[in-house]
Every structure is written in C-alpha cells, then in structure tokens.
Design brief:
The complex is a heterotetramer, with two copies of chain A and two copies of chain B. By secondary structure, chain A is an alpha/beta fold. In chain A, the strands form three sheets. Chain A has a seven-stranded mixed β-sheet, sandwiched between helices. Chain A has a three-stranded antiparallel β-sheet with strand order 10-12-11, with helices on one face. Chain A has a two-stranded antiparallel ribbon with strand order 8-9. In chain A, helix 2 runs antiparallel to helix 12, helix 4 packs parallel to helix 12 and helix 5 crosses helix 6. The longest helix of chain A is centred in the C-terminal third of the chain and has 37 residues. The two termini of chain A are about 40 Å apart. By secondary structure, chain B is an alpha/beta fold. Chain B has a seven-stranded mixed β-sheet, sandwiched between helices. The longest helix of chain B is centred in the last third of the chain and has 38 residues. Classes of the chains: A alpha/beta, B alpha/beta. At the B-D interface, helix 1, helix 2 and helix 3 of B face helix 1 and helix 2 of D. The complex binds pyridoxal-5'-phosphate (2 copies). One pyridoxal-5'-phosphate binds next to helix 5 of chain D. One pyridoxal-5'-phosphate binds next to helix 5 of chain A.
C-alpha cells in the first residue's frame, strides 16, 4: 500500500492565520461626541493578537472542536469524573436573556427569578444530601473543599480550639485536591491508611484522631469506588475526638437516593454539580461545588446564601450571610449558569430519577467489572459502587502499562479511563461508566479491553505505540516541560 | 419507564444483573448501613422538558434582563456585546462535553485553544507566561497574592484601597488561614517594607480611574516586593499594559471579553506572570511540543506544580477551572481582533465621558473624583443612590453601584459599547427628574 | 474596511489584481453595458450585528409568539413541542452549511440521515418507498397528482371537498398549465371515471375528522385510478396508515414532526408511494450501497428521474428542497420514538375532545359536524369568528381558523400537547364571555 | 507498516440502535380527562421506528454530522452553488420565539414584525434587481422559475396569445431546472446554442424567436461564469418577437451592485436567497426563490405580496394578492426563516457591502482561473465573473477524468467543484470560490489542483482510486440504482 494521504503541514496556529486588516465581526460605530483622550503616556501601542475574518475564525475553531473527544463523541469512562450526558435543553435555558444577561449586582427585586432558582437548588441539595443548609458559593469541587475546611476552622476557632486543631486526616486514596485544600486552609495533612479491602482502616484512624485533629476529609464512596461499611464508626470516631467530618461528594452519583451524608454524621459535604448533576465539564470547567452543612456548621457557610421570605403577598428571595459565615470566597454569588443547569436536571428527574441514576450507575459498573475480571486484575474483589478500579499489573508483566492500554483504547474509539489514580493501586485503571451508558456500549468497551489484553500478549508493540488513529500520536511531554513553549 | 438520560432498557438491566450474579439492583447497596439506607427523598414531582422550559422561561422573565433594561452597572462585571460566533464556538459539543484534556491525543481542540488563550493573555497583559485560567478575577488575585508570598517568602500583602472592596474581601479570606497579613493602603501614602510580599493594584481602579502604575511599581520593587495588578482586559486594548510598568503578576476578570454577566458566573480569572515566576504559578498550563512523528501538538505541562501530582505541596488546590469561559474569551478576542477590541475600548471611553459630562451639568450632581477614567466614573448624587436606583428601575434603567459607604451619596456608573446614546440620554433625563 | 464575511485583505486584493493582470477590480466588469453599469443602490446604511440583533429582536416582539399566547390555530401548521435535541442536531454546522450531497464520500451525514428519514416516512405512511422530501405538504400533494397523471396517462384529478382549501388552491395552480382538469367532489357522492388519474383525500380531513379511507380506495381503484392521500404524520401514530387502506401515493406536511410553525416555512413535504411507482417519483432519493472495499454507504440514486440529468423529461423541476427540515423530522421522530409519538397523538386527541366537550356546553356554541376527530374540530359560534378572534387576542389567545365561508360562523379549533388544561379552560371561559 | 486500525464494523443504522423501551426525550402527561377512543378499526397497530435513549440519539447524529463536509469545514468551490459563509447570528435570530413560534394563519395585527421583514426584503430585492415588485412566495430557485413562467403564461393569456406562444427558449448552457420548469408550466423547450466564446449566440437566437415564443430563460452571468456583452441585444430581440425575458438569478452574486436585471430589460427574475444572500443550504434546502418583476409582470406575481399602508399612525403591513396574480404556489406565505436571514444579511452589508461581494467574488475567480490555466484547460479564455469553468480534457488524455480529480481533491481537504456541468464543456470542472474565501485559501486550493495535475501524469492510479482518506471510498452507484435499498 502506497501512502495515499497528501502530506499535511502542521495545523496552523491562530497566529498563522493572521491577515492584517481582516475582521471577525462587526461592531457599532460611535454615536456620541468623542472626548479628548488622556495623556499619550497612558496609551497603549500595538496589541499583537491576530486579525482573522469571520469564516476563518469559524473554520479554525470548528476544526479544532473535531479534534476533541467529548461525551457526545462516545463512551467516556473517566473514573471519578462522572462523565454523564449533558442534556441539550439546559444549554438553551441558560441562554435565555433573563438568565444570561443579568448583572450580579442588580437589585434583588429585579432578579427574583434567579434568586428563586438558587434558593430552589439549595433546597434540593439539602434534601438530597441530608443537610441543614447549603451555600452555592464554591465555584468547583476544590473550592468547596476549601470552603468546608474554612468552616471547620471557624468552628474550632469559635470553640477556642483554633490554635490546637491544626491537622486534617486524609485517606491515602483521596483526591489530590483534598490535601492541597487542607494546605490552603493552613492545615497539616496526616495520611490515613486503607485496609487490605480498600476501606479506610478504622482502627488506624482511631489512632490518628486526637486533640490536634481538626477534621477528616472522606470521599464516599471512596475513589476506589467502594462504600465503607463502617462509615458510622468512622464518623463517630472523629466526633469522639472532637473533630469534624468533611465529605468529598464527588462520587455522590453512586448513592443518590440511597443514603444521605447528613444522616451518616457528616458535618459538611461538597457536591460537584459538574459531575453528579450533569452540568457540562467544558474541557475543564466551569463547575460548581456547593457546600451542604449539618446543624453543626450551617451558620458558618460562605456567603451568599439565598433566603426566602413568605411574609409578603408572594415569596421574596434575598441574598444573605449566615450568622458566622466564613464570608465571600469569590467576587459574586456562584456559578449561576451551572447552578441553573443542575436545578433543571433535578427537577426533571425527581426522587425516582435520583434512585434510577444510582441504580444504573452502580449496576453498569458492577457488570463491567464482572466482565473485565477475566482479563484484568481487580485488586479489590467486592461489589463496587459507580466505578471499578482495575490494575494493569498482569499486562505490565508483559511490558504493557496502564498508559499504553489507555492510548490503545483511543484506536477503538473510546476515551480511556482515569489512569494511575488512586495512587494506592499500581497501574490503576479507574473505570466509571455512569448511568447514561447502555449495556450495548459497555459490552463494546469490554470487548475492546479484551482485545487489547489479547494484543498485549500477541503484539505488545502495537499497544505500546498506540494511538495510531488520532490526529497526533504520543506527544513529548518531557520536551514540553524542559523547554516550555507556552504561547505564540 | 426510566429517564431519557438512562440508556439501559429493562431487558438490559435484567441481563446485567444475571451476569453480575445479583438478584436485584437493591442488593448492590448492601454495604450502606441499613438504618440509613433508602431515605425517602422529598423532592418535587418530576416534570417533562416542555413543562420545565416553560416554568424556567417564566422565572427568567422575572429578572430584569440587560436586553430589556439600560444597564449602567459595572463594578467587576460588564455588559459587553458578544458576537454570535463566540456562542457558535462554545456551543460545539465536543468542546463543552469534554473533560480536562489529560489525554492529549484526543483533546487537541481544548489544548490548542488554551494555548491561544494563554498567548492572548500574555499579549494583553504584557507578560511572559499565562495559565489556562482561574475561577474568576477575584480568586485569581488572591492566588496571585499567595504566589507572591511563596516567591518572596514573606507573609504580608499590601492592597491599595482603590482595589475593589469585593476583591479585597476575597483576598482577606484567602490570606488569613495561611497566617498572611494584609494591609490596605492608599496609593498616595504607599509605604512598602521588606515584610511585604507584594503591592496589589487595580487597573483601572475600582472607581474607574486609569493611572500610571509607575509609582506602585517603584515602591514595590524598591522593597524587593512584587507588583501584582488586577487589570481589565478591555482597558488593556487602549492603555499601557501592566507589563509596560514592570508588573510581576497580572490577573484579570475574563468575563468582560466574551462572556455574559449571567448573575455573576461562570467567569474566568486571567493569570499571567514573568517567566521567572513560572514554576510558582497556580492552575493548568498548556505547552506546545511534538509527537513521535515530529508533528506539532499541545499538552498539559509543568504539572508537577499541581495538586494531582504534588498534593499538599502543590501551588494551589485548583483542579476544575473555567475552561469553557476561557474558550469564549479566545473566540471573542479572535472575533474582534486587536482593532475591534481597541474600538470597543474607545466606545466605552467616549460614552462614559459623554455620560459623565452630561450628568455633571445636572443640578445637584457632581463628579467628585479627578483624573482620567475609562468606562466607569463616580457621581455624587443629590439623594441616596438607593432611592435613585429604585426610581430608575421603574424607567427600565439599572443604575450604578451604590458606593455611599466610601463616597457620600456616591454612585459608580458604567457605560459600555452596548449603551446607545439614547440610553444615556434617557439616564440623564431620569437623573435630572430625580434631583 | 470590508465586511467580516470577506476574508481578503487589501494586500490580498492587490496581489490578486497583479497576478490577474488587471489594473482595478472595476475593470473586471467591463462587459456589462456601460449605460447600466454601477447603479447607485438605494439601500439602508449598513449596521453592525449588535444593532441588527437589537432591531430584529424588537420586531420579533411585535409578533404574538405561541410561547406567550395560547394557540388554538392549526389548519395545516401545528404547534407541537420540539425537544431541544432536535435543535442540537440541526444546529450542527456540518449539516446546515453543506450542499445537496452530490459528493457521497464527504456527505455521509446528510445521506444516512436522509435514508433514515425515508425509512420513517415509509413506516409512518405504510408505504414501500419515500423520497427525501418536497417543498411542503401542499406542493407534495400537487406533485403527487401530477405523478398520478403520468402513471395513469390520464388528465383529470378528483379532489375531495374535505381537502384543505389552501391545498386545493395549490393543486389547481399546478394542474392548469399542463392542461389537467380538477373536479372537487364530496366524499359522499364520489364518482370516479376512467378519465380520472386519482382521488385525492386528506387524512384526517380538513375539519379534523378521521374516517376510514376504504370507500375512497375502492372508488378510485375500481376506475383504475390511484388513491392519493395527504396525511398528518402525528395522526399516523394513532390511526391506521393510508397504506393499510391501499393508498398508492401518500404525502404529508413534515412541519408537524419537529419543526416550528415559523410563519409558514420552511416546512417539508413528505412523499411516499408503492414500489411500482418508484421511477415516477419526484425529488431526491437516497439508497444504500457499498464502496469498493465493501463498506456500507449511501448515495443519491435513481437520479435519472431528475432535472439535472433529464431536463425537460424529468419527473419534476425540484432541485433544492428542504433537507434540513427533513433532518429535523428525523431527529424528532428519533427523540419521541414510536411510543412518544403515539403519546403526543393521544394528548392531542384527548385535549381536543376535552375542549370540544366543554365548548359544546356553552350556550350559543355547537359542534356542527359528527364523527370521530383527532386534534381539530369545528365549532359553530354565536357571532362571526372574526369578532371572537379579535377579542380572544386581547386575552393572549390565538383562536381557531375562521371557516365561515364553508360553515356559517364556523371556527376550526385545534389543540396539541402544548395546550395545557389551563389554556383550554381559559379559552372556554373567554368564549363563554363572548357568547 | 502493519495495519494498526482495529477493524471497524459498518456504521450502525438508526434501526441497529433500537432499544425497546428506551426513550429519547420526556413528554408531558395528560392533564385533562381522557375521552373514549374511536372505533378500534380506525386505530393503528405498531409503528416500527426505533427507540433510542437521548445520549444514543445525540451521539448518532453528532457522529454523522462529522462525516459531512460543510462550508464551516473548508473550501467549498461548488460552481453555481455560491457556497458562502452563513453568518452565525442569523441562526440565533431565526430562533427567537417571536419568529420561530408564530403561526402562518395568525392575524396580521399579531404578526406585524414578521410582515415588516417580508416587506423589507421585497423592497431590498426590488432595489437590488431593479424590479417594480417582488413576491417572496417561491420556496426555491426552481419554484421561482415555475412562478416566473406562470406569470409569463398568464401575461400571454391576458394578451390573447396563450394558445399560440407555447415555446420557451433555453440556452444549451442552462441549468436543468430551467427546462424542467418550462415543462411543468406546459411549455415546449427550444434549445438556443452558444457561440464559440461561450456566449448565447444572438444571431441564432433571433432565428429562433418568433410568434410561438413565450419567452427566453436566461442565466446572467451564464453558467459558464460569463457575462454576455450583448445582453441588451438579446432582451431587445426577445421583446421584438413579442416574448418576455426570464432571468435565472442564481448567479446574481457576480453582479451585485454592478448591474440590475430590471435595467437591462428582464421582465422577471428569480433570486436564490440560499446562494446570493447567504442563507444556509442545509444539505439540500431550505432555500427561497423570490421573483422580482418589471412593470410588465408585476401584476401577475404569485400571492402573497406584503403591502404597506401608511394611512394610520404607524405603518401597517398586510398580506395581499396582486391584481392578476397567478395565485398561491404553496400552502403558506414563503420560507419565512430563509427570508429573515436574507433580510438580516443585506441590512448588515448595505449598498457598499453588495459591491464588495461582487468585487471579491469576481476577483477571486479570475485569480484562481489565472493560476490554474497552466495546468488545466480553460475552454473560454476570457475575464470570468464569479466562477471559472475548466475542462479536465488534458488529464482525460492521461486517463484521469474530472470525476477522479474531484475525488482526489477530497484527500487534500477540499470540496470538489461542480463536475460535468454545464454539459457543453467536456469534463467540466466548474469552480466558484465566492467572495468569502481568502487568497490564502485559494492558493492552497490551486496548489492542490496543481499537485493533482502532477499526480495525473506520474501516478494516475492514485487519482483514479481516490478518495483515500474519507470514511467511505467510491460507492457503487450502479448497484444502488439496480437494487434500490431505500429504507430500513
Ligand atoms: C474525588 C474528587 N474530589 C475532588 C475533586 C475536585 O473537584 P474539582 O475538579 O471540581 O475541583 C475531584 C475531581 O476531579 C474528585 O474526583
Ligand atoms: C443556474 C441555476 N439555476 C437554477 C437553480 C435551481 O435553484 P434551486 O436549487 O434553488 O431550485 C440552480 C441551483 O442549483 C442554479 O445553479
């Protein structure tokens, strides 16, 4: 076979398309008298960004979009990320002028519809997580972690233990943001180990918890996709030590309508709306990480919280600040566009819909896990929740790493799972199918994984040099880090 | 019948249960303590898409939209015109339904556009390097302050009192837990010591004024502290960049270039710095490199700064950020181009000056501040701004921010290219009537 | 500065002129008679996107939108709910910015979805083959009549008087130039002769009634004429298909399945027939085949029926049709599925019957027609419908079609699933007040 | 190189995705009492269309969209089709509820905004084409041809010549619809020949025109992309014969603001809004083919025409019917969504913008033509208008046809030109760059064409088996026609 593809030059950068004088849109002309400009010394010279006609712009970005793999492209079993379908009607609603074009500082009277939605979502999340009160302020999961820890901190300060309780316990399976958030909040991180079943080791935890402990950050179900059956003991142990329990709710999808953080004794939990509640990830945000607090911490929630007043003729909503609030953690109220979508999602599905999600998410994961165990090592052989963490250690022995398997999956048309996380599992492949995928899709994925397991035996090189069908193959990351080329 | 967002049929579920060897789906949840298993969720009854769109549309109509109201409110969120192509770009579902581009081979779209974003932020701010964006302008500024502390190993920051009070509030909440002090000083009496990590200025300042940053830069640098600037990107098309003045870290609110005000979010924080500070930057960074066949491509780089690798020693806890909003900025800047952005800036400038000069002539109103300004200016009103704003609202006008706490009866007014002359004249007439 | 829709810069133009050997662009037009060259066009001054969107939005607000008004008007255009996914599909610019799929290798998207469309039309109508769509339901019907004439080599068509008068008008204009006669008959006194090419029926009929087509089919077929049916696709989810009754050609208006009413267009005509009539069908047809590597793929086929090959001996002059609207129908039918479409049909049915029974009880109003009906029904009003409709409009209600010319004070009312019970009750109350 | 792409099964059809019980959207429940259903005999049994969840639907259609080449994908020099950029804001405006969700039969009082736009476009088109009056009724170009011919027919009938004038003259270069439309209007087609320069042969035309001639259908500029310098003679000759001149305005883009049909003596002309005025082609429609009439035919325009009444306080618009109208040619008013976009387009550009279009369209075509003449035969060596018609006859001699070149262009990332039309040029390649494309794009296209010319010499097989990079290669059209497989 001769090479029939004409050699393609490198994709042009945006700067390559620069056409001085071209313009990508029209703008209105000045319709008021011009004033004098300030002193020349204040004024800018050139601004070196490209000039491109509208068609060139559209082609450039449309073309690049096609180089991206999204949920709408295919199966996206990225563990811990809950890549579920993003309903299209949410996008339309978010573009309504009465939502998109309202100013954060306009008076509450002129934004009652927006406030009603914020209030509504606070309410829904409180019910779903079993919380006393909710603030939508955090702009992502990690931001929610920070908010939650600042609440815990304020609580201990209030109780005169601000200076003594300086440590936060974090399981060895935890997401990196947990530890980083603790550090941002001025805490020292103490790692709590897992037991051989993949559970947080309760006895070890009891050892670690003490008068210096501010709190425990616990992901439930854990990042191994496992539900800790001793969760009540854990919360008790922490509370007995005078500390508080922070819940990382990134994996809430697994237990929607099955159990509530608040009922289990968590003091505060954040929820990732861009995971559990289907708001689009956007290639890395926006997200939202509302914090949901139990009685213990409700007064410390970040501002704003929306309150409802029924004393008048109809309900009136206003932005307020809880009594002992940790204050504002960003300029305005919340990622309203994200809040709106999550609200829409929950309202469409209702309570029954919440349970359907967890049922299908968990069933999908267990089915996938069952089918894959023949070919891949499952370190923790248990019923899993929404995701299953495999290890590519068998393949590693053949010279094929988790990374290689991941890259080869691309050739089969799938997005790879999360790799090398949690770090406690060597060669981890963390697979989360979500409730949105059908058995048909999961079967196709399992078939591909099995084929790759075969290839790893018969033709490891094929796997190790994958992907072969993508616009670029493996990129030189070392070069990128050693000689940073960060802009045109 | 299950929801349209679940693809399995009953038959699928049955087959999967059998294959899994579980009698019923409920059994999968056996590890949840029985005492708390299966709570009754008291949620509103589910509704269809049709019904909810109708309901939400009605709620949306309860908000005074800037499409229907003349808006003179700014203070960190600005009503600029966003060309339709921007929404076309962000509406491509390959962009908005993808995750953070960890898998570079199938994420070149997000990666390359992020590289473009970084490039534009560098050029706008006059800095060497930029990241992929932060949550918003205020958290970007707070993180810049933390970064300055790490770089200088100092633990106090000086914030000018002309920085937005909202931003100052956020900075304070980020400093305190790490035991970092914060002094608020006037630019006129700026004293920087060798305990100070940085001087934080806003450009144009909170009151809309545009001043040289030279003296701030000098004061900071003399004390070996850094100059951190929160700059408005639209203003940067018209005025010297912070880089021109020697700033070390420049942040900004990206909403103004391509995203709607949407009640405060999602926005995106711009973040740029000098090259020598690169390894202390928070957030994601995209770099250009080549693949094993020599083809150019883009990857997330310098990830050893980040939480997923460094955990508690990372430069920040930020993970999910605001990539789609950054994409909107990139598309916006491409659409308007350098000439268009400068044109927008000039429209803002001239309209603000037209409005200010008209209002200044109204009996009872005055402009208490001096010096050049960009698209915002302070008006001293004959009555409390809260009263005036309430009356303006009835005339389909959203007035300026009430800043009576810092300037008696002060109102911070803003105009952009979306304010037609007719709107400005209506405002002036209405203010006259309210004198 | 030229428009954003032109990509050449001045430098480009200069370079091209030089390469072309022409001094100025004006010289390229030298063959235009000088006497008429370069007229001064008296057009409004150009405006920017921002200004025009504002102006057009204001014009749009001068129209009573069915989002704001309760609409009981049908008569060939129906306000059904369109799921958002449909707009996502038609909003993919690869679909809407492409031409007719002449180049199959890079048009599989349009081709495969058209094949899906044809398949759905076949199943809905109960016919063997379908084309890619016609301009609208009325022209589809007129073309079906012409096709019947070609097939039978006869030159008269019988149209039932229960066919929409609007459609009858269009048929007449298509028949006359080719010298084809048209008789309008009542279904009760249907006489078909061997001069007649076809009998044309509407299903449900113009008055909303749903009747068996058996007698029409028998009358037509006994005279070796064809039965041509204009059928509503939503009704076909609930009622027997024309194919079940032996129809030879079935057409319909595709707007009702997935496209907005949008003041009358773009719509799409559905067109289906028996296999033996295939080669006389007008319009494009997509077929499935394989490539030289055995992979399945789709192509435009049977093109020898068409104008670009056959010119004056083609089966029609149609070229550009309504592909995007057909795509919307395909996406709509996929979204609602067979159960959903049947559900929509049942909602229409029950709401129409609920409304009719409520109105029938109002003093002064009656239902003059008998027999089962689908989503439309005729009400005889106590006053001229024009007066009633004018009054209803003030209550944010768009009333039914005034059909006083065929039924005294007759109004043709319609309900769909978008009419909530509340809207219907409001209508009934308003009618009561207008008695 | 081993084959590294996993074997892909055939793309699933929609029916392959059928999952009984799945649903692709939510619908409201019944909120009124149910009534009895009619007789069972009237009711339908099964409806055999697929059931698919919403995510499956989105992936299916999104995936298929990527198999399509659109203007947003790349250069689309499809001659005669004027594939120009479709401004994005038009799509947003068309979705405004006050435009998308209005009923064609609602009262004119409640649709003044829509009627104002229709009136506005009638006015703009009248000015641009030099017409007396305009009807927007025709739904595509061919529908406009039919309308125009019916007007001519009505005119002759009115003048007592309906029975005698039965022939329509159509140049040999004309588009197929012209002839087909004539036939639909009951006319006999008489072909008028071109002269060696590619112009309609005026002397031959004079011979053909006579008392049996109803009219001439003339495309200006012609489908060869040429402007006939003797256009005034032609119109005079036809009028002298007592016949009328129909203008096919499909190529209006070339002469926008340069000359007007009405001024040249055309009696009626249709304009393709989906070409000249940038409304999206939609993969084969919708379009719109408004007819613009001179004094001679204004009274015959199809209904409706929008009229404006200024007698009241503000302008009032109403739908009306010209005195001798040929009546209605479709159910409702017009393709309103298309009309709206065309209106928006002209308003943004203004008179200057119209001239910019023709200038750039014609300059682009001449530049392209100049550069390509080295390698491809240009049968008519003249200044062209908006398009250049080449012949691949040189390549044909090497065994490479216009078809093969077209297919090979796909490998270079371009949409092929129109092929084999006009029929008078053997192995025709009809290339229309439009004003939207930049010199940079045209250069890249010319380079590709030159490379293919090279390949035709050195490796004709490579060209003859192209395309090599598309999702499917050449499809078996004979099989498709012989064994029609037209649905699942
Ligand atoms: C378990 C877990 N915790 C926390 C986070 C952080 O959330 P975010 O990315 O929204 O900051 C993530 C997401 O990556 C996660 O998976
Ligand atoms: C020259 C010419 N005339 C007429 C037509 C027919 O227009 P439409 O396809 O809109 O019916 C076309 C379009 O293909 C054309 O190019």
């Amino acid at each position: 076979m001769t090479d029939t593809t004409p050699t393609q030059p490198n994709r042009p950068t945006l700067m390559d398309l620069d056409s001085p004088g071209a313009r990508g849109t029209t703008l209105p002309e000045l319709d008021v008298p011009a004033s004098d400009l300030p002193d020349d010394g204040l004024l800018r010279g050139d601004l070196d960004i490209p000039e491109i006609g509208e068609l060139g712009l559209v082609r450039y970005f449309t073309g690049l979009s096609k180089l991206n793999f999204g949920i709408d492209t295919g199966f996206y079993p990225l563990g811990s990320c809950t890549m579920k379908y993003n309903p299209k009607w949410h996008e339309e609603v978010a573009r309504l002028p009465g939502f998109a074009n309202i100013h954060p500082l306009q008076s509450p009277e002129s934004a009652q519809g927006a406030l009603a939605i914020m209030y509504g979502l606070q309410d829904l999340l409180a019910e779903i997580t079993g919380a006393r009160a909710v603030s939508l302020a955090p702009l992502a999961g990690a931001h929610g972690e920070m908010a939650g820890l600042l609440m815990i901190r304020a609580y201990h300060e209030e109780h005169g233990e601000g200076e003594t309780r300086k440590k936060v316990l974090i399981p060895d399976t935890a997401h990196g943001t947990n530890a980083a958030s603790a550090k941002m909040c001025g805490y020292e991180v103490v790692t709590a180990p897992s037991d051989p079943h993949g559970n947080l080791d309760v006895e070890a935890l009891k050892e670690l918890a003490g008068p210096e402990t501010a709190g425990l950050m616990l992901t439930l179900p854990s990042t191994l996709g496992l539900f800790n059956p001793r969760i009540l003991d854990i919360c008790n142990a922490i509370h007995d030590a005078g500390a508080l329990v922070y819940g990382d709710g990134a994996n809430l999808n697994a237990i929607l309508g099955r159990v509530r953080f608040g009922d289990l004794g968590f003091d505060v939990v954040h929820s990732n709306l861009h995971k559990t509640f289907s708001t689009p990830h956007g290639g890395g945000g926006p997200g939202a990480g509302p914090v949901c607090a139990a009685d213990s911490l409700a007064d410390y929630l970040p501002a704003p919280v929306v309150y409802r007043d029924d004393s008048g003729s109809g309900p009136q909503y206003r932005l307020g600040r809880p009594a002992k609030s940790i204050g504002k953690i960003s300029a305005f109220h919340c990622n309203f566009g994200v809040v709106l979508r999550a609200y829409a999602y929950i309202r469409l599905l209702g309570a029954r819909g919440m349970r359907d999600i967890s049922e299908n998410a968990v069933l999908n994961a267990n089915y996938l896990s069952t089918r894959l165990q023949e070919d891949y090592l499952l370190p923790h052989k248990r019923t899993c929740m929404h995701e299953a963490v495999f290890s590519a250690s068998r393949q590693k022995a053949l010279g094929v790493r988790a990374l290689d398997i991941s890259k080869r999956l691309m050739d089969y048309g799938f997005h790879p799972p999360t790799m090398y996380f949690p770090q406690v599992v060597p060669e981890a492949l963390m697979i989360e199918p979500t409730e949105c995928e059908s058995k048909r899709t999961i079967d196709a994925f399992v078939d591909a994984m099995k084929a790759i397991a075969r290839e790893s035996e018969t033709d490891p090189d094929l796997v190790n040099t994958a992907p072969h069908t993508t616009p670029v193959s493996r990129l030189d990351e070392a070069q990128a880090a050693r000689h940073p080329d960060l802009h045109w | 019948m299950s929801s349209p967002y679940i693809s399995n049929t009953d038959a699928d579920r049955q087959a999967m249960l059998e294959a899994t060897g579980v009698a019923s789906a409920a059994d999968l949840f056996f590890e949840i303590p029985e005492s708390h298993r299966d709570p009754d969720l008291d949620l509103p009854a589910p509704l269809s898409e049709f019904e909810l769109i109708r309901e939400l549309r009605e709620l949306s109509l309860q908000n005074a939209s800037l499409d229907d109201y003349a808006c003179f409110l700014g203070a960190g969120s600005y009503n600029h015109y966003i060309p339709s192509v921007v929404r076309h770009v962000t509406g491509r579902s390959e962009f908005y339904t993808s995750y953070t581009p960890y898998q570079a081979e199938i994420s070149q779209g997000t990666l390359q556009t992020t590289y473009d974003f970084q490039s534009m932020v560098c050029h706008l701010t006059g800095m060497d390097v930029a990241n992929a964006g932060m949550y918003d302008g205020s958290t970007a500024l707070a993180e810049a302050a933390l970064m300055a502390c790490r770089l200088t190993r100092r633990s106090n920051v000086v914030v000018l009192d002309t920085v937005s009070p909202i931003y100052r509030d956020v900075i304070a909440h980020y400093m305190r837990p790490q035991g970092i002090g914060m002094s608020v000083l006037s630019p006129d009496s700026l004293a920087v010591t060798d305990a100070d990590a940085c001087v934080i200025a806003q450009y144009p300042d909170f009151y809309g004024r545009i001043n040289s940053l030279s003296s701030c830069a000098d004061a900071a640098h003399e004390a070996k502290a850094l100059l951190v600037v929160s700059a408005d990107p639209v203003a940067l098309a018209m005025f010297k960049s912070p880089g021109d003045y020697g700033a070390d870290i420049v942040v900004g609110e990206g909403q103004t270039i391509g995203s709607p005000t949407t009640f405060g979010g999602p926005y995106v924080g711009l973040f740029a710095a000098k090259t020598r500070h690169l390894r202390q930057m928070p957030g994601r960074i995209v770099g250009k490199t080549t693949d094993d066949q020599g083809r150019e491509g883009y990857v997330l780089t310098l990830q050893t700064r980040e939480q997923h690798i460094r955990r508690q020693t990372a430069t920040s806890n930020i993970c999910t950020s605001e990539a789609l909003v950054a994409l909107a900025s990139t598309a916006y800047l491409t659409a308007v181009g350098p000439q268009g952005l400068a044109h927008v800036a000039r429209l803002c400038y001239h309209k603000a000056h037209y409005a200010a000069s008209q209002i200044a002539e109204l009996p009872g109103y005055s402009l208490p501040l001096e010096g050049p300004f960009f698209r915002e200016f302070v008006v001293q009103c004959p009555r409390p701004p809260s009263e005036i704003n309430a009356a303006l609202l009835d005339s389909q006008i959203i007035g300026g921010l009430n800043i009576s706490d810092s300037i008696p009866n002060g109102m911070l007014l803003c105009t952009t290219e979306t304010n037609t002359r007719d709107q400005i004249d209506r405002l002036v007439d209405a203010l006259k009537d309210l004198a």
